[in-house]
Design a protein that fits this description.
Strand order of the largest sheet: 1-2-10-7-3
Number of helices: 17
Bound molecules: protoporphyrin IX containing FE
CATH class: Mainly Alpha
CATH topology: Cytochrome p450
Strand content: 5-15%
CATH architecture: Orthogonal Bundle
Low-confidence stretches: none
Number of strands: 14
Structural class: alpha+beta
Distance between the termini: 55 Å
Shape: globular
Largest sheet: 5 strands, mixed
Length: 406
């Protein structure tokens, strides 16, 4: 490996999962690596765990607002609109916004959803169990997060699927889905959110969409634009991340049959720890970008004001200085200081509790009701350098009976 082989932009580098050989080389040789961009000024690739945490926890020096969170610079209007999403804000604006919405996301709210999530997971397995085969990604892993978002927002479950299709387009690289199609998908989603706001104003429900409309702190409320973009963010952030974790986690189990046997032998005890290991090992969010607001030093290198700084979570989660045998998938790994939900600090994943519950519930349902589930073909990976996971994973299992008739 030489630096001539480093390419963290091309989809080809992500064709079989994250480019861990490149990440390993970078961590050892250039933990802060200046990566050229064919149509941009270039960026710093940050690959070590402590450096990712430093960037995450210092929003004054590393701004989300200045240039957004994707490597490619956005058009000024696109960036201005995206700044209505908290992922694109810096404190104090971010703090105000996050306080307004986070009351709805406290762990207690996520826990009260558990019985409903269990019901949805049962229904998803019911749909495939008699067939003895399916695509794990679209028919199991992708169903739950889209249903949960629909459930949270108080919209029909079937609409959840539509939102999920739009998200997938938005997250694909421009090599795979043309920019016009990606923009059209975000417009459709924004229009959909506007419609929901109108509907919930006329007919309030006991759901997050209604509570967000009315959420108020010291007389402060979300503006219509902030409301609409929160909807977009929620669907985007909570959908394919959870799906990819579930599918990527199952793939890791298939590839490590002794770990699958071990997990099955003591599901109650091992499941929560195994989920943390899947988060570390799969790291569904490949990167988040910040922009340096001043000259600074990071990991011993000089960063200039205006430079793009890109944090690679999948690499940080295999940092050999932090994790013993980082490439080993060990479902009982403790401690496990992974940063799949972000390196701490102000933007730490708002849905982490909810995601953990969704993943645990779905895995339990899969492993108990499809006890001999196995891969029935090779996984195909998503054409994206931003979100990582299989987009197709055929599986087979002994056909069983639907829960209602069991
Ligand atoms: C396995 C599943 C998930 C992973 C790996 C994940 C990962 C992440 C990451 C890496 C960030 C950015 C952290 C940073 O910049 O410091 C983030 C932010 C966020 N996530 Fe998640 N996420 C997941 C599921 C969810 C779910 C289920 C929801 C909600 C339904 C959600 C909502 C959000 C929101 C709203 C933000 C923005 C927070 C802010 O800007 O303050 N995520 N997530």
């Amino acid at each position: 490996m030489t630096n001539r082989k480093i390419d963290l932009l091309s989809v080809a580098s992500f064709a079989h999962g994250q480019p861990h050989d490149q990440f390993r080389w970078l961590r050892t040789n250039h933990p802060l690596y200046w990566h050229e961009e064919p149509d941009g000024p270039g960026f710093w690739a940050v690959t070590r765990h402590p450096d990712v945490c430093t960037v995450s926890r210092d929003p004054q020096t590393y701004s989300s607002y200045a240039g957004g969170i994707a490597i490619s610079d956005m058009e000024p209007e696109g960036l201005a609109a995206a700044r209505n999403m908290m992922l694109f804000m810096d404190p104090p604006q971010h703090t105000r916004y996050r306080t307004l919405v986070s009351q709805q996301f406290i762990p207690r709210s996520a826990r009260t959803l558990r019985p409903r999530i269990e019901e949805l997971a049962r229904k998803i397995i019911d749909r495939v169990i008699e067939r003895g085969e399916c695509d794990l990604v679209s028919e199991i892993a992708g169903e739950l997060p889209s249903y949960v978002v629909a459930e949270l927002m108080g919209i029909p479950l079937e609409h959840g699927r539509l939102l999920y299709e739009w998200t997938e387009k938005m997250h694909s690289s421009s090599e795979a889905v043309p920019e016009v199609e990606k923009r059209a998908a975000s417009m459709e989603m924004l229009n959909y959110a506007l419609g929901i706001a109108q509907e919930k104003r006329q007919k309030p429900g006991d759901d997050l969409a209604t509570r967000l409309l009315n959420s108020e702190i010291d007389g402060d409320r979300l503006t219509p634009a902030e409301y609409t973009f929160f909807f977009l963010l929620l669907v985007n952030a909570g959908g394919d991340t959870t799906r990819n974790l579930l599918a990527g986690g199952m793939l890791a189990l298939f590839e490590n049959p002794e770990q699958l046997r071990r997990l099955r032998s003591d599901l109650d005890q091992l499941l929560p720890v195994a989920v943390e290991e899947m988060l570390r090992y799969v790291s569904p969010v490949v990167y988040m970008r910040r922009t340096a607001t001043c000259d600074t030093v990071l990991g011993g290198s000089r960063v200039k004001a205006g430079d793009k700084v890109v944090m690679y979570y999948g690499s940080a989660n295999r940092d050999e200085q932090v994790f013993t045998e980082p490439d080993k998938f060990d479902i009982a790994r403790t401690p496990n200081e992974h940063i799949a939900f972000g390196g701490g600090g102000t933007h730490f994943c708002l849905g982490a509790h909810l995601a953990r519950i969704e993943i645990q519930v779905m895995l339990r349902e899969i492993l108990t009701r499809l006890p001999d589930i196995a891969a029935a073909g090779a996984a195909e990976w998503l054409p994206s350098n931003f979100i990582s996971g299989p987009r197709r994973l055929p599986v087979r299992f002994s056909a069983g009976r639907v829960a209602a008739r069991a």
